[in-house]
Amino acid sequence: xxxNPQTEPETxxxxxxxxxxxxxxxxxxxxxxxxxARNTARLELDGSxxxxxxxxxxxxxxxNVIFVAFIVxxxxxxxxxxxxxxxxxxxxxxxxxxxxxxxxxxRQARAIGYMLRSDDIVFRKGILWQxxxxxxxxxxxxxxxxxxxxxxxxxxxxxKMVTAAATTGVQIPGLTQAASEALRDTLIEVAxxxxxxx
Amino acid sequence: MSEPQLPPTPAPPTAADxxxxxxxxxxxxxxxxxxxxxxxxxxxxxIIAGIVVTNMRDRLIAWAIDLFSxxxxxxxxxxxxPVDWVLENNLILIALASVLALVLVxxxxxxxxxxxxxxxxxxxxxxxRKGIVFRSHRRAPLDRVQGVNLTRPFPARIIGLAKxxxxxxxxxxxxxxxxxxxxRAESVRADxxxxxxxxxxxxxxxxxxxxxxxxxxxxxxGVDVSAxxxxxxxxxxxxxxxxxxGVNGLISGVDLADVExxxxxxIPTGRLVGSQLISSVLWFVFFAAIxxxxxxxxxxxxxxxxxxxxxxLGLGITLGIGIPMIIAIVGITWAQISKSLRYSIAPTPDGxxxxxxxxxxxxxxxxxxxxxxxxxxxxxxWRPFGWWTIRIxxxxxxxxxxxxxxxxQQFNVVLPVGKRADVERVLSLxxxxxxxxxxxxxxxxxxxGPVDGDPYRVMARRAWWRRPLSWKRxxxxxTDIGLLLRRGxxxxxxxxxxxxxxxxxxxxxxPIDRAQRVSGAQVHTVQGLxxxxxxxxxxxxxxxxxxxxxxxxxxxxxRDHSHRWGEYAAADVTVAPVHDGALPAAPEGPAFAYPAPPxxxxxxxAPPVAPPVAPPVAPPPAAPPVAPPPVAPPVAPPPVAPPVAPPVAPPPAAPPVxxDE
Lengths: 198, 661
Prior knowledge:
The complex is a heterodimer.
Chain A: H1 23-26, E1 50-51, H2 55-81, H3 88-111, E2 113-116, E3 120-125, E4 130-136, E5 142-146, H4 149-154, E6 156-162, E7 170-176, H5 177-193
Antiparallel strand pairs in A: 1-2, 2-3, 3-4, 5-6, 6-7
Chain B: H1 15-19, E1 29-31, H2 36-40, H3 42-55, H4 57-68, H5 82-88, H6 92-115, E2 118-121, E3 125-130, E4 136-141, E5 147-152, H7 154-158, E6 161-167, E7 175-181, H8 182-196, H9 211-216, H10 218-230, H11 235-252, H12 269-304, H13 311-340, E8 344-348, E9 351-356, E10 361-366, E11 371-378, E12 388-394, H14 400-403, H15 406-411, E13 413-418, H16 420-430, H17 439-447, E14 457-458, E15 475-478, E16 483-487, E17 492-497, E18 504-509, H18 511-515, E19 518-524, E20 533-538, H19 539-559, H20 565-572, H21 588-591
Antiparallel strand pairs in B: 1-2, 2-3, 3-4, 5-6, 5-10, 6-7, 8-9, 9-10, 11-12, 11-17, 12-13, 14-15, 15-16, 16-17, 18-19, 19-20
């Protein structure tokens, strides 16, 4: 599934997604096995998915651990120094929720994928609650890459696609630096050739 | 541009004026109407007046009573307000002087604000710049214009002013030109649409004014010329004239003259009022429920206290709760009715033009290819009458909160109420790809619900519990027109999503869905009243949405050129025969009816006789006889033809033009 440049021979457009600026970059250092529900009724498309980098999970874990430590510290100060023992309750709830999120995070990260097809990009995520969205290339208004400080340390970034519809909201997290730039360039190039009025 | 002039001074004809820029889309900076500050600052004036009245109320009452019956001594008014203080201290002069100074300062500020508020229309952009301390300069590309709305709010309408709103795509992306004289606003609208259509080539050449317009405005033009040559008109003259015209228009409703003859749908007033009254039954039920709860609570409370409310007090409480609610119901219903009255919809070369409103008149022009979704709906209460309403999703340049407000919702209704024939006509206007053959798919199968041989992919039978009533209807069909979504039994809906403007499709499947081998689906389009959610589709049908629909959408987008509709239309129909000596832009009208782009089938009988395209003519010699009706109302009823403004300073210049300068 990796190292599989997206070649769709039937592509009619002059410039198709196979001409990725750096096709290899999309699949370098990413997961290689998509994780989905076992039930055969799951949503499934033909073609292969590009996946995200495992470093995304590490980055998220580090961020969340820092967050948990901060919450515990605040609660401890409130409870021990100021005698506000109730502070343990909200802090405990937040910490438990964060920890549960962390436990399922690696599974979730393996379920995130995107596929460049001849006319559209498909993004999928989720295992139990599965979501899949297809956005035609021509509808893309802008492509946005964001990177937090820790993301930068781990070399991952998030790519967001904006269309005229507010609900479309495709955000691909955990792309490697090279992959996000290659993907952005590809998307913009392809969108340029298929632009419509809106 | 024009010299600085105070509105009250007789306007010396400036260079720009005397040249008579019959089109404002000349790449120069223009100003708004001089009375603009009055209406924009109107609220402040009302507030000040309110404060004064509140503080002086007793004095005013005493004064009025003194005036009418001097012998009746009103109360024991003992002053205590600033007027007494001023009188006692002999400060009348100072007080008057300071009031005068304040007024002068305000006028000066307003004048400066007005001076710095300018707009410009170039070939590619419309720009507005304003502000003195905080300057703002907004420029919007014309080929992304989503529509042009011409609003005539009630007070401004009396003196013939209008507000032009150039709708952009995005939040807070509108460019407002407020206020312009109605005639100029209409010409600016026509210019913007013409430029946006990409038919710029048509603008060149052709200088002689149109003979049709000449004939139409012949009578009034004569008057104008004599008046204009008589006395150099003062600004006051203009104001009085435009005021008269505004009042006339208000009474006779003439300002619909340019569209009314072409309207493809006539809604009888009775039906309009009736439909809104029936809708208000829902409000009545809603308020009655609140009323019942409130009164019931009071009664129960009093019974528990062992102190039953009786007689007068009970009546008072009931009325106190009930009357405001009745007022609310009446208010809501009246607002709906008055907004929908005088509705008309007509094709023009630059898009569908919709006009409505009894007191505040709104004329909006929707260029082709700016409609993202269309929905035909019918509530249960309307079913016995066979009435339908049509709503659309479009880029309104407003945020979600603004969109859900009542006035903005009105912008999204293209047919307030209509029977089947009306709906079909409006649909073929706003969804140009609809062929007569497709109507069966839309009506018999779509709107009226499943019949034998249903082409719609509906919910799986095993998932019926998600939509217990409507599961047989709930589904979609992919056609050339677009993606059709059929939903609802009590509240029947059929939504059409044109493929060329589909923004994406998403599927979602939770564990219960998966156990039932179904999936939810959502069609994404711009924000609006129409949502595209379907639940419980068969898994394969849902996957087809992702596979088939998006590729069909991409293919449709390739074919679609409506964002520059004029270029392609002009290519198809080179030049119309009527062209010679007429408006350069006008011939496009009959040549291609509104839905210009590919393979359209709107009956060509409808197209406007003479499109409201402004003649970009600027021929000094030709100008005098014809009051350049930039708004060329095709067949204006003689009595009150085009929004002709009364006498103007430069005799040769076009009457309506210089008012803004």
